[in-house]
Specification:
The chain is built from five helices and five strands; from the N terminus they run βαβαβαβαβα. By secondary structure, the chain is α/β, with parallel strands linked by helices. The longest helix is centred in the N-terminal third of the chain and has 13 residues. The radius of gyration is 13 Å and the shape is globular.
């Protein structure tokens, strides 16, 4: 079975490093980006079955990135993560096409569980 590639987008380097470490330990191949634009550039180069995006980022926020991804790659699974958890954020994320939502801070086990749950629903 091929290694699953995950793309993590967050403007905070420590979050990217933490996610990479947790996901690699679980056997995933991980690429990271610091912005929505960088994410879109990476998606042009290669395909990922799942993308993890921070909600609050400068310039292009997580919802804008999510909407752009879903227009270009409708089958791509996107998980929104945020430390600003409100019902409105969750609803907006899910209504915009997110497959799941994860609240920061999260444990490595919770991150791996969310990625697994989303991958199980992939066609």
């Amino acid at each position: 079975m091929a290694t699953v590639r995950v793309l993590v987008i967050d403007d905070e380097e420590i979050v990217r490093i933490s996610c990479r470490k947790a996901l690699r330990s679980a056997g995933y191949e991980v690429d990271t980006a610091a912005s929505g634009k960088e994410c879109l550039d990476l998606l042009e180069e290669g395909m990922y079955p799942v993308v993890l995006i921070d909600l609050k980022m400068p310039a292009m926020d997580g919802i804008e990135t999510l909407v752009t991804i879903k227009k270009r790659y409708p089958d791509l699974q996107v998980i929104i993560m945020s430390g600003y958890d409100t019902v409105e954020h969750v609803v907006e994320s899910l209504c915009s096409g997110a497959a799941h939502y994860i609240e920061k801070p999260f444990t490595p086990d919770m991150l791996v569980k969310r990625i697994s749950e989303v991958l199980e629903t992939c066609p």
